[in-house]
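User: Predict the structure for this protein chain, please.
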Amino acid sequence: MSKIPLLGLTLNELNQVVKNVGMPTFSAKQIAHWLYVKRVHSIDEMTNLSQKHREMLNTSYEVGLYAPAEAMRSKDGTIKYLFQVGDKQFVESVYIPDTERATLCVSSQVGCKMNCLFCMTGKQGFTANLTTNAIINQIMSIPESSLLTNIVMMGMGEPLDNLDNVLKALEIMTAPWGFAWSPKRITLSTVGLHKGLERFIQESECHLAISLHSPIPAQRKLLMPAEKAFSISEVVSLLKNYDWSKQRRLSFEYIIFKGINDTLPYAKEIIKLLRGLDCRINLIRFHAIPNVDLHGVEMEEMVKFRDYLTKHGIFTSIRASRGEDIFAACGMLSTAKREQRD
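Assistant: Here is the predicted structure, written as structure tokens:
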């Protein structure tokens, strides 16, 4: 019988574990410290637990930390990690080092239901939600784990479609008994699932990024089928109910596609859509994916678009393009690996 991983359990869940095993209540905090601060690989390393209690834990539990299956390194320092999370099932994380930052892009699902036209992960369809163990393991198992300054939930999957496990992972990252990170170090990206969005805003203080990609509903629906159920106008109306001027940051992600959404009339529509909302925009260069007739634009066009938005009151930045020589688009490496196994 397979053992239950301790990694990915919250303090409340660890309290239940020690209760089930018959250990003292204070043991839960000790275990959390070993897992998330000391980062041990085995229960036997938890030396302030008695030998008897370690043996009791070992009967049904394990730490549950496992290494990536593969890694691809880019000439710009970006590293894409591949994790096996089931039979022929893989997810990706991307380590992105910068001068003063080291960011990890983390996945939340195997595949995705959203089926955005420009996303390789969506072409896989949806297979499974990642457990909290599988989410936290991406952060803790890479060699660069201790160097990380930021986490972005922008990898494979829609985080709000796996909200219970994502919120537990965020609790582990930010709680004093966990990583004790500031919520300012973490950003969650979503297409804008309404029910999950409200719950995330109310239960987490982490930054929020909304996938926009077009301010025109009919066009956004072609790019992002989720627009049918979760319209961007309704998302913006919901967001206006909250104060974004204080600790957390609200941003909108906008991939610029040549001949699709790259002209100034689209910038004007963005300004109208977001008027009155304290936010910023991240312009993103498109990474081409197979069998999709979408193309990126030259940097000159992105700068023109950025400058127009900034001039009209929306702080806008161009996200640096990284890892183009290593299956840059999210989902490409896992798709290739899955096809190789089939």
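The chain is about 35% helix and 20% strand.
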